[in-house]
Amino acid sequence: xxxxxxxxxxxxxxxxxxxxxxxxxxxxxxxxxxxxxxxxxxxxxxxxxxxxxxxxxxxxxxxxxxxxxxxxxxxxxxxxxxxxxxxxxxxxxxxxxxxxxxxxxxxxxxxxxxxxxxxxxxxxxxxxxxxxxxxxxxxxxxxxxxxxxxxxxxxxxxxxxxxxxxxxxxxxxxxxxxxxxxxxxxxxxxxxxxxxxxxxxxxxxxxxxxxxxxxxxxxxxxxxxxxxxxxxxxxxxxxxxxxxxxxxxxxxxxxxxxxxxxxxxxxx
Amino acid sequence: xxxxxxxxxxxxxxxxxxxxxxxxxxxxxxxxxxxxxxxxxxxxxxxxxxxxxxxxxxxxxxxxxxxxxxxxxxxxxxxxxxxxxxxxxxxxxxxxxxxxxxxxxxxxxxxxxxxxxxxxxxxxxxxxxxxxxxxxxxxxxxxxxxxxxxxxxxxxxxxxxxxxxxxxxxxxxxxxxxxxxxxxxxxxxxxxxxxxxxxxxxxxxxxxxxxxxxxxxxxxxxxxxxxxxxxxxxxxxxxxxxxxxxx
Lengths: 268, 247
Description:
Distance between the termini of chain A: 15 Å
Shape of chain B: globular
Order of helices and strands of chain B: EEEHEEEHHHEHEHEEH
Structural class of chain B: alpha/beta
Number of helices of chain B: 7
CATH superfamily of the largest domain in chain B: P-loop containing nucleotide triphosphate hydrolases
CATH topology of the largest domain in chain B: Rossmann fold
Number of strands of chain A: 0
Structural class of chain A: mainly alpha
Strand content of chain B: 25-35%
Distance between the termini of chain B: 38 Å
Largest sheet of chain B: 6 strands, mixed
Number of helices of chain A: 10
Number of domains of chain A: 2
Oligomer: heterodimer
Order of helices and strands of chain A: HHHHHHHHHH
CATH architecture of the largest domain in chain A: Orthogonal Bundle
Strand order of the largest sheet of chain B: 6-7-8-3-9-10
Shape of chain A: globular
Radius of gyration of chain B: 18 Å
Strand content of chain A: under 5%
Largest interface: A-B, 23 and 31 residues
CATH class of the largest domain in chain A: Mainly Alpha
CATH superfamily of the largest domain in chain A: MetI-like
Helix content of chain A: over 70%
């Protein structure tokens, strides 16, 4: 049934992708007019798009000016982010589910969680340096705190939103409390848990630049910082574009995972 | 007679705070009986079923199944709800298998039961579909199949066809009678639709307005298949209507 329904919008989206591509080119064109044609701003403040794009490609082989190629930076940043993110997910999802399912556990953990929740990830930087020094761990822990909150909040509300009628079905069939948790509450919370994973990943990646402000010698945040000091705006902008691109790619990968895991649900 | 009693409701009273919903209700259900419970909207029919299955706690009185207090792990009870209760993350087949999984039914037996009930409700061809891909009536049939797959000794139905149009309702009512006859299950069917109650039930229990009491218990001996235009059907329907009149 729905197979046919799915065809329509997909075809349409292919057609409209041209509009999206046009918007990117229009943006680049205006930027180019502004910098290269009218020379409205000095090149050391805003370099031309052509310069930025060529720097972007050159950076894949060139280590100058700050000492590493783009891929090395990307790899280093991904390592930091994914380490923190993985720990955040591994702790946050089960924690959120348990808080949503076991009332007493919720009461026990909630005061601490409510206290930690409003603290932004970057506010953890000083304390993490004190705890873990200035290696991978301190940066990863900043990202961990960022990812943790998003995972807990979404897993918690997903579990809480389990429909009563679904629980009643389990209950009348004689399911135990744990069976109801694993067979009903967690599967039914899955869409929100996965949303949490996506939000957490986006937040982790954004927290990266801040985390890399900690003394480091690799990473996209480090590259941007260094080039600010030595006045290379083209590298800064190329770095920003890379951060945006990798972030979008990560989100896209999680979207694919979501599609795979949420077969049969609405709105995907 | 005593041995044949499946469900014994004794002085059942349920209140939510100050609000008395069920007021001292007592009645028995015989094994294999199809009992319809009718009453004005909001009279506490659902509260009654939920008390029976311990989804709500009872204020006073008792409900016994096979002469002992309800034990959901021991007694094989299935409940079909008014709203869609299928699990959206499971296929039709997996949904029907749910009760059997919980009850740890062996694999072969499970497969056999699933095939049997899916054939009866006409969804075998759709066993790999997800509920979201099915129509409302098909989804309700999945719930019915899920309930019957466990071969429950007691089946509770709370206005299962309330959301469906007349034609589908007739169809599913006949399907239900077929399943019931085949499985010898005891059925408690709650409805506010008098015609449906007269069409389905061996007996009709008429409830009063809140606080709910049993107004009357009417035996229904009209032979099946029943015709909704036969004089005896119309007569019985009118009698129940008179009893229930809330307008």
